[in-house]
Amino acid sequence: MWTALKSHYDSVKDRRFETLVDSARAADFSAQAGDMRFDYAKTNIDTTGRALLFDLLDNTGVAEKRDAMFAGAKINETEGRAVLHTALRNLDGDPIIVDGTDVMPEVLDTLARMEKFAEDVRTGAFQGQGGKITDVVNIGIGGSDLGPAMGALALRPYHDGPRCHFVSNVDPADIADVLRACDPTTTLVIVASKTFTTIETMTNARTAKAWMGEKVTDPAAQFAALSTSEQGTADFGIDASRVFGFEDWVGGRYSMWGPIGLSLMLAIGADAFRAFLKGAQSMDLHFKSAPWHENLPALLAVVGIWHNQICGHATRAVLPYDNNLSRLPAYLQQLEMESNGKGVSMDGEDLAVNSGPVVWGEPGTNGQHAFYQLIHQGTRVIPCEFLVAARGHEDDLHHQHQLLVANCLAQSEALMKGRDLDEARSKVADKFDGDELERQAKHRVFPGNRPSTTLAYPQLDPFTFGQIIALYEHRVFVEGVVLGINSYDQWGVELGKELATALQPIVEGADASGKDGSTAGLVGFLQKNGL
Predict the structure, then answer these.
(1) Whole-number Å distance between alpha carbons of 366 and 352
(2) Which of 412, 261, 254, 260 shows the shortest CA–CA distance to 336?
(3) Catalytic residue numbers?
(4) With a cut of 70, which residues of the chain have pLDDT below it?
(5) pLDDT score, position 116
């Protein structure tokens, strides 16, 4: 499979794919899910390459593994768990059986409890001890922070509840800056930790509790927990009515659809949150039923596989021309790199091809005045993934939004077309001549032939936002299956945690002689300078 794809790539890698892009290709190399359109015409994939990529999906059993995931099979084989974040948006409640039990009644019951609590907070029925809640502080890390923080920003135009703040870093500056802007008497603190033992989260939670205790007689009464630890939350003083749990078949980076999304629900309300879930559910149904050539998650995945494993491009840039999606690249860094940043296959063998790419990016047009220089004229090709909406939320500034869209479409066109030396000469022929003309012209050459895709949609509303996040989740799944890896464990985060626990006593003054010379030397330097 890989050999055939690489052989085909070798036969077409030097052509200018701009010559392929006519109206017929534009129609053939794009697909829609509802009102969302994915265009991958500006790549070097042709019908032969696409057919080989679809064969790869078939030969690696993507469809079968997809159906097993939705059915509740334990496809997370290294941890012996199902992978059922999709159940959290299964609003129709169709049965999903795990270990002989239908999980949907509990999922829907938890959603209803979240909605009731959110409504109480938003209306003032839950007042804490100082009047109506004006601010919510979500304390978490990784998936317990990135998802809701990104979502709260993405859906900012729909906020009509309390202000939401997010704390993740154990650096005290993070929580100090957030709490400085809040009043303890009107603040609700949400502690998001499945086990209620995550060291960064619990350290910040204790800091917040002490801060609230300076003005509130019972600070735990203004805390809620997103956790499965009944004992841990009870010991902290949080009443069980404000504890919202979720099962081990929901991974952290896939968890914003359930209790981890409580802060988002508080900000936008239960109806808008359900629209967010419905958008994701619609993408689930599309992923399960659409043939490969119309299936957006599959297409996004095969384009990624083509660029990374076949062409050898080690990074991908995610470039949303939608300022409310400014945290999407950071969210996708965790979603994709923690999921598919593996070195061994499911059976424990070394991977025969590279694993997932480095994912990075920023919203446009900021990036145009920063790293786009490297994208356009650097020596390494960086595939780009653009996202753009037809409409913004500022109706009185629609003309400015049109300028934003023009920039987005121009960048993908420029990456494809480039500018050759003759055209570059013509740009400066009136200013230079001879050898200086040649030198100046070469600085203005754009290689072009650089691939990009574009995801376009009418407007970033809760439904569309749900579609986008579910689309990327399923893209990660497809790429993981093709690579033969487990996208749902994350053993790579464990070693650093273990060493940090061992290092803390040394940082606090214990003997560092057992450490390597570099680490011991750095500890000594920091201690001499006030650690």
Answers:
(1) 38
(2) 254
(3) 338, 369, 497
(4) none
(5) 98
Contact between 190 and 243 under an 8 Å Cβ cutoff? The reply is no
Question: Which residue shows structure tokens 């005290």?
Answer: 172
Going by C-alpha positions, the residue among 90, 109, 87 that lies closest to residue 98 is 87
Q: What is the pLDDT of residues 298-344, one digit of tens each?
A: 999 999 999 999 999 999 999 999 999 999 999 999 999 999 999 99
- What is the bridge-based pairing of β-strands 315-321 and 358-360? parallel
Rounded distance between C-alpha atoms, residue 264 and residue 153, angstroms: 9
Name residues whose C-beta falls within 8 Å of residue 303's C-beta, 6 or more positions apart in sequence.
Answer: 40, 43, 45, 383, 453
Beta carbons of 452 and 382 less than 8 angstroms apart = no
CB atoms within 10 A of CB 293: 14
Looking at residue 22, its amino acid is: D
At 501 the pLDDT is 87
Supply the angle between the helices 270-289 and 104-123 in degrees, to the nearest 10: 150
350 C-beta neighbours (distance < 10 Å), count: 7
Cβ neighbors of 124 (< 8 A, separation 6 or more) are: 131, 132, 133
Contact in structure between 79 and 489 (CB atoms under 8 Å): yes
Is the C-alpha dihedral spanning 425, 429, 433, 437 positive or negative?
negative
Tens digit of each residue's pLDDT (9 = 90 or more) over 124-171: 999 888 889 999 999 999 999 999 999 999 999 999 999 999 999 999
- Least Cα distance to 191 among 145, 152, 149 occurs for 145
- Among residues 309, 221, 259, 277, the alpha carbon closest in space to that of 92 is found at 277
pLDDT at position 16, please? 96
Of 79, 29, 64, 30, give the one whose Cα is nearest residue 49: 29
Report the chain's C-alpha Rg in angstroms.
25
Q: Cα-flanking dihedrals φ and ψ of residue 80, to 5°?
A: 65, 45
Environment class of 306 (CB within 10 Å of its CB; exposed 0-12, middle 13-18, buried 19+): buried
The answer for 31, left when phi > 0, alpha when psi is -120 to 50, beta otherwise, is beta
- Would you call the peptide bond into 519 cis, given omega within 30 degrees of 0 as the criterion? no
Give the Cα-Cα-Cα angle 73, 75, 76 (nearest 5 degrees).
130
Look at the block and give the residue holding tokens 């979720």: 246
* Backbone φ, ψ for residue 18 (5° rounding): -55, -35
Q: Which two tokens stand for residue 466?
A: 């749900």
Predicted local distance difference test score (pLDDT) of residue 513:
85
Q: Kindly list the distances between the CA atom of residue 16 and the CA atoms of 107, 372, 449, 450, in Å, as whole numbers in the listed order.
A: 51, 21, 6, 9
Q: What are phi and psi of 74, to 5 degrees?
A: -85, 75
Please name the residues in contact with 93: beta carbons below 8 A apart, sequence gap of 6 or more: 104, 105, 108
DSSP 411-461: HHHHHHH-B-HHHHHHHHTTT--HHHHHHHHHTT-B-----EEEEEES---
Please, are residues 223 and 241 in contact by the beta-carbon 8 Å criterion?
A: no
